Amino acid sequence: MIGENLKTVEAEICSSCRRASRNRDEVTLIAVSKTMPVSMLKEAYAEGVRDFGENKVQELMDKIPQLPADVRWHMIGHLQRNKVKYIVDKVSLIHSVDSLRLAEEISQEASKKGITANILIEVNVAGEESKFGTTVEEACSLVESIAKLPAISVKGLMTIAPYTESPEDNRHYFHRLKQLSVDIQQKNIDNVNMATLSMGMTGDFPVAIEEGATYVRIGTGIFGERDYQ
Ligand SMILES: *Cc1c(COP(=O)(O)O)cnc(C)c1O
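That is the input. Now the predicted structure with pyridoxal-5'-phosphate docked in place:
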């Protein structure tokens, strides 16, 4: 099942890239494996997947030692400051940084371990109350403050668009995030690069790719429905 699903997703990524006149290698697929058993991650790995997304620290810590070392782990969920120390040197990118306090903690823990942490700034583009993320208006000044921290490298922006039945509804949110990244890039802030845009999930990733996504985060489309019981 996972192999077939991956083929379907891959074909859709390719056709979205073609429609947008983008190269396939500009977009990286993150297989969002939260709640899924390790056996399913191993199946995806065997099919060639190397980027996995998880949203809970405990689950990441359980799964990381059970998969080969060349997996790139992405922390895509809300991160509590007291848990940063467990994963800062184990994930390749933290997608969900939305406050200076969290960034300070990440920088401090990364320093202790002698590394630089790669992060994205999460922006709540649609302004949904239920979601984490900084606002579009505050994003730039947050980036400027975070960029001054010693052990952090800002790589771009991330957003979680609203749940919708019709992906076209989210196009303007993706467009807005892309625009914001261009605006911030133009400020030439030291230690800040806006090349990475993490946006698009199972329901709307083709539109996100058309609007400039460089990472798409796909769970259900690869592993099937999640069971939260
Ligand atoms: C769960 C999750 C996804 C994947 O969602 P699907 O709709 O299953 O593809 C993507 N991004 C984040 C931040 C998530 O928490």
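The chain has a mean pLDDT of 97.
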